[in-house]
Fold this sequence. Notes:
Number of strands: 13
Order of helices and strands: EHHHEEHEEHHEHEEEEEHEHEHH
CATH topology of the largest domain: Rossmann fold
Shape: flat
Number of domains: 2
Largest sheet: 6 strands, mixed
Distance between the termini: 61 Å
Structural class: alpha/beta
Strand order of the largest sheet: 5-4-3-6-7-12
Helix content: 40-55%
CATH superfamily of the largest domain: von Willebrand factor, type A domain
Strand content: 15-25%
Amino acid sequence: MIHFEHSYLLYLLILVPVFIIIFIIVRRNQKKRLDAFAEKQMFARLTPDVSHSKAIFKFSLILLGFTCLVIAIANPQIGSKMVKGERAGADIAIALDISNSMLAEDIQPNRLTRAKKTISNLISKLNNDRIAIIIFAGKSYTQLPLTSDYGAAKLFLESINTDMIEAQGTAIGDAIEKSMQTFGYGDEDRPWQKNKSRTIIIISDGENHEDDAIAMATKARSEGIVVNTIGMGLPTGVPIPQYNRGVHVGYKKDRDGNPITTKLNENMLAEIAQAGGGVYLRAGNINANLDEIVKEIEKLDKQNFGETMFSEYESKYQYPLALAIIFLALELFIFERRNKIINTATIFGRKESNDKN
């Protein structure tokens, strides 16, 4: 079975029908201008060497060359054999804030949806690492234990919503502690071994009201665990939407009837990351630039997760690349003018006239 290393590049083939449409439009416009300039028979006499079929043929060669070039850079591969090898990676616990303030719409469509998209993008950048998902508000729970099944992680991620925890608040410290427990910290049946192959990523708006998150981040760092943070939202205050069975019914208000607002607490999240020896990243209306956190993950020591079977692929980009070069080279050596030396239409025309005679 053919496998493409960079399959997303195949979307460039969408341009092929676009090029064809543009070519047809340009040819029609040229024909209209020529028809307005002179009659068809007169124009044929004025430009006897112009070959319309060769123009179409040259364009076809360019399209074929472009198609083969796209396939080549997508790098088609063939799985030749199964190979046994060791799988080594890091352990990553992602703690996601699902308090009501994460429904704020200062980043579109809202903080929670944007956070889930950010996590999904991060998972797509991982390789051989194990991942766990922790959800928290006033309390924290393990949504997904450590796993290397990224598909399952994304499925669990899609099901997360703010109704999963009744206790409201933002207990970041408790979320850090729960994340440490997913690594085996505090488990009597699993002897704790301090190493530098673990990291916690806190994704929240930073409105911590429950505990001392900085102290817990410091504790995690002392155990060799790096704590990174991603801030969701904007520093300006916005109201918190209120929903009833999925229907927006207004905004949350205090006892005096005033709207309750929420804003990103960047200082808190930056201090937690500093205490945890990690980095702070702010996610705005565009996808969060995860490069810094990915770099932090790559710095972690890799632990051996045992043997695994994987396919060894053999690249075959040379063949479509060779075809692309051939097609484009042929296009360069074909001219739109008719060949006066070898003109098949003239030859056959003369032969037919001689037969009649």
